[in-house]
Amino acid sequence: MLSRVAEHLYWMARYVERAENTARMVNVNASLLLDLPRKVKLGWEPLIDITGAEVLFAELYKQADQRSVVRFLIGDERNGGSMLGSLFSARENARTVRDVLPREAWEQVNDLYLEIKGGLPGGLAERNRYDFLKRAIQGTQLLTGLLAGSMSHNHGYSFVRLGRNLERADMTTRIIDVRSANLLPEMDEELSPFENIQWMGVLNSLSAYQMYRQDVGKPVRRDDVLEFLLKDRLFPRAFYHCVSEAEGCLGAMPRSDGPLRAVQQIQRRVTETEPERLDQAALHAYIDEMQLALADVHGEIGATYFRVQEAASRAGGA
User: Fold this and answer.
1) Helices within the chain (DSSP H only)
2) Between 280-301 and 239-251, two packed helices, what is the crossing angle to 10 degrees?
3) By C-alpha distance, which of 215, 237, 259, 79 is closest to 144?
4) Among 65, 91, 181, 233, which is most buried by a count of CB atoms within 10 Å?
5) How far from 34 is each of 29, 123, 197, 208, CA to CA, in Å?
6) Rg of the chain on CA atoms, in Å
């Protein structure tokens, strides 16, 4: 497979996953704020922290109120990481390699982008926003299903799965890190019953609440939530599961020794982790470590598959 094709498929999947995650975060945050007492000032700014776009947001907006944050994350074309920006990038990557994609998948990427862009003015209104974002989430999930059901499960599809799972793993760590840091750090006795609501928000941000209750079978508690989201082997958005999916993709590819070693180091580290022993400072340091490790995996994949053939071509033409 040509390196440029592999790279476009990988990034198409990452951008689609990023758009879905962004839509879900905004909807969950709105619901969470309705469930918490007014004296709990959770607000909208943590969503900017999760996406890592604090500097750009500060350049474009004066304050992190609901209207500004929602516009920035959903439809601001100046923010390449917004839902609309991610769908645009996904469409451009898909368009470049549309000859290797099922026709239905290309049409879904294109139609979804056009639908979201056209519906944006009304979709940003608070009364319409939930349904608008729900349609976006369902549209990205439809694309995932179309690719799984109508694309040959060859190396090209493996790069789609790689991109999707590395993006998911990254988002899981970001949500845990930022949300746990904002969980009522100086909670008094009156507010302590609301802590589990915020951990439910963490689960809901990853569509994990129902599976947590089904698989863990315990009330929502910090240590159990961390154990589930970091180490569960079966839930699709759990960190360990995402990394293991990446390992499976790489194991079937040629020249995968470097990326595989990077992935397996993460797996070993997660297996050794005991979430109940991590206080907030230790958890933050651990999440930083995992994000750097994911960056190493991404770098190894790029060096092995996305640039090696290009470099060889330049050397051959010299």
Assistant:
1) 3-35, 45-51, 54-60, 66-74, 83-96, 103-123, 126-150, 155-181, 195-205, 209-215, 222-231, 239-251, 257-272, 280-301, 308-317
2) 20
3) 237
4) 91
5) 9, 20, 11, 20
6) 20
Could you report the per-residue pLDDT of 124-171, keeping only the tens digit for each? 999 999 999 999 999 999 999 999 999 999 999 999 999 999 999 999
| Residue that is written with structure tokens 């909208």 in the block | 44
Q: Where are the domains of the chain?
A: 3-317
For residue 193, the 8-state DSSP code is G
Q: Which two tokens stand for residue 200?
A: 């439910």
Distance CA 28, CA 46 (A): 12
Q: What is the pLDDT of residues 212-237, one digit of tens each?
A: 999 999 889 889 999 999 999 999 99
User: Which residue shows structure tokens 């022993």?
Assistant: 277
Q: How many CA atoms lie within 13 A of 42 on its CB side?
A: 28
User: What gap in Å lies between CA 256 and CA 259, rounded to an integer?
Assistant: 6
Place of tokens 């928000």: 201
The token pair at 38 is 């007014």
Token pair of 113, please? 């982008």
Contact (CB, 8 A) for 82 and 72: yes
Tokens of 94: 């898909």
Written as one letter, the residue type at 201 is: G
Let me know: does 211 contact 233? Beta carbons within 8 Å.
Answer: no
**pTM for the predicted model, two decimal places:** 0.91
Identity of the amino acid at 163: G
